[in-house]
Amino acid sequence: MKVMEPVNIGIIGLGTVGAGTVNLLERNANEISRRAGRHIKVKGAAVRDAARPRACSTSSLELGTDPFELTDDPTIDVIVELMGGETLAREIVIRALTNGKHVVTANKALIAVHGNEIFRVARENGLVVAFEAAVAGGVSIIKVLREGLAGNCIEQVIGIVNGTTNYILSGMSKSGRPFDEKLDEAKRLGYAEADPSFDIDGVDAAHKLTILSSIAFGIPLDFANVYVEGITGITSQDIAYAGDFGYRIKHLAIAKRIDSRIELRVHPCLIPVEHLLANVDGVMNAILVVGDAAGPTVHYGAGAGAEPTASSVVADIVDVVRTLTTDPENRVPHLAFQPHSLSPLRGGPMGDVETAYYLRLLALDQAGVLADVARILGQRGISIESIRQRGTSSSDTPVPIVIITHRTLESRIESSIPELESLPSIAQKVVKIRLESMASHPE
């Protein structure tokens, strides 16, 4: 039997995921080689500071600070980009591809924003770009959508895809503590960055939804078309009131096929307490996929961390090694669908979204207030499912009124809010949170 030469890889970035990848490749070297058919060797790594201590051994690899030494090294077969960011990472990946090297990346922002260009360059050079680790760490949701559900017409992809926001919201739900306290705790525990804005403002989840929706529906990557809303406006009060109605608040990434358009939105959402997604706590991720043949399936696991994410990175490396001798025309397409058959379907304005809503008003406890609220909503065809006044007080002290509506258009809700806020009895801005009934959900 012919012994094949090892496959040399270069890793750019030896942070949490990079170090985890090196450790996993070393620890499970025999098992990985048996699966890949060839030995995989980390020949070199590029880092910002070569003197900084690492969470992996670097004695057997060439460690430097110039990533282009790796992209230009003719003895390296695969570049593993784990540095993050967009601008330099894009330059590195394009350089690697034009030099004939396959690429593995965990960089969701890079793929969401520049993926269309990167995949075009890869196709032109007969190369693979693997990016399983870019979404939901160790869950392998990209492979599920791209391969496992290839026989389905995907109808919905709804997920908790950001561990930081889920840790904060589930912690607020259990402890009743405010957002700022849970965010500080997440930073102390390493679940949130020093600057957590990408997570708490929803940008990270929107990057991931861009990728998932493209693979699920066969549409070009289009990050700019995703509606994005974060969790900074969610209060412990709203979480408690939602619980009274039988809901939990989660930060969801939602992609739905609606007739001739695709809804792409990321925002906080009330979901029924009995649904599996409502019971995903801490930093865990979970994605509900609804296919016309498979029905609803839920995919759960660690969304981040050294080993779970490294697991997906190494799986991608194995997949790339397996394809080194295959015909480029017969590989699994990057975005599941053949490049020439991507659909022009686009999302419409948020005003066309139809769902139910949670509304919280702070109103003076006076006669006629509820009638005024019901009149304003009714004039726009908004039907009320439930309404509760939270406590009583003197007529000059406002009290919360919480409303759950039936399904209606977002445009109707948006047009009613200014009129509600203009009522003399309403003391502050109306709080609006969308509600998903999660129809066809598994229990």
Please tell me about this protein's structure.
The protein has helices at 16-27, 29-36, 67-71, 87-98, 108-124, 141-148, 163-175, 179-188, 197-200, 203-217, 236-244, 306-323, 369-379, 410-422, and strands at 7-12, 40-46, 62-64, 78-81, 102-105, 129-130, 154-160, 227-228, 247-258, 261-272, 284-291, 295-302, 354-364, 384-389, 398-405, 408-409, 431-435. With 443 residues, it is an alpha/beta fold. The chain has three domains: 7-138 and 307-339, Rossmann fold; 141-302, Dihydrodipicolinate Reductase, domain 2 (2-Layer Sandwich); 351-435, ACT domain (Alpha-Beta Plaits), CATH 3.30.70. The strands form two sheets. Strands 7, 8, 9, 10, 11, 12, 13, 14, 15, 16 and 17 form an eleven-stranded mixed β-sheet that branches. A hairpin with a 3-residue loop joins strand 11 and strand 12. Helix 2 (29-36) runs parallel beside helix 12. The radius of gyration is 24 Å and the shape is elongated. The model has no long low-confidence stretch (mean pLDDT 92).
